[in-house]
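Entry 12.
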Amino acid sequence: MSSRWNLIAQITDLHIKRPGELAYEKVDTAAALTRCIDTLNALLPRPNLVVITGDLVDTPLLDEYEHLLRLLAPLELPLAVVPGNHDSRAWLRQAFPAQPYVRTGGALDLALALEELDVILLDSSVPRSDHGELGPQTLQWLEAMLARDAQRPALVFLHHPPFVTGIAHMDRQNLHNAEALGAVLKRHTRVRVVAAGHVHRSIQTIFAGVPTSICPAPNHAVALDLSAAFPPSLRVEPPALHLHAWDRLNQKLITHYVPIGDFPGPYPFFAPDGRQL
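Predicted 3D structure (tokens):
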């Protein structure tokens, strides 16, 4: 542990289609993922883990998972994934067989010990439904997992956000039993963040006393419509990811918004002689 930082990159909502197909007839999600992987591979210091919080594919089809794996092959960092409402549990398990799933069937929950952190991935997907729920087995396992060590910091990742964003058509699809998750978090205060996806926007709030965020997507955003003035819509906005940085010195979690792409810089603020440029 020579570095001050324990870094976990979060990406979400890849929506990979079959080769040559566009999401919603507008978005080249495969090209977006390729740009995202280039950004991840260039990060310094290097993240210790990349977490994908669901909707890895779009329909889902087996062809999409095969295409996804080809696109992910250039990623040079360890990877952990959890399904979203666009995923198939069976095909995701087949695509990522090495993940240490808690059980052989049902929800694809897992936990990873990442040095001094517990990284907990909860499967909030409900087969053939858009909304999210955490099943009784998942909640019982989470309770037991958090009870193991009251002092060890934990980060919780899932697809469906447990709070209302104000975007009505997405809020109808959020985590429907969020109060059950909140009750567990209030009993076990070692969780430092709840990190979700699903809405394709960077959003932050406090849930059950815990900082809670939604990660932006590498491809398109759900339109920011707080008045329900439009039908459910997307916008092609600048893509980004979240970098969750555990500060070992101060024992705090800091989350950075990282734009995806190749941008000019870095340029120094000061000349070699100390003069401000």
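Annotation: The longest strand covers residues 240-247. The chain has a mean pLDDT of 97.
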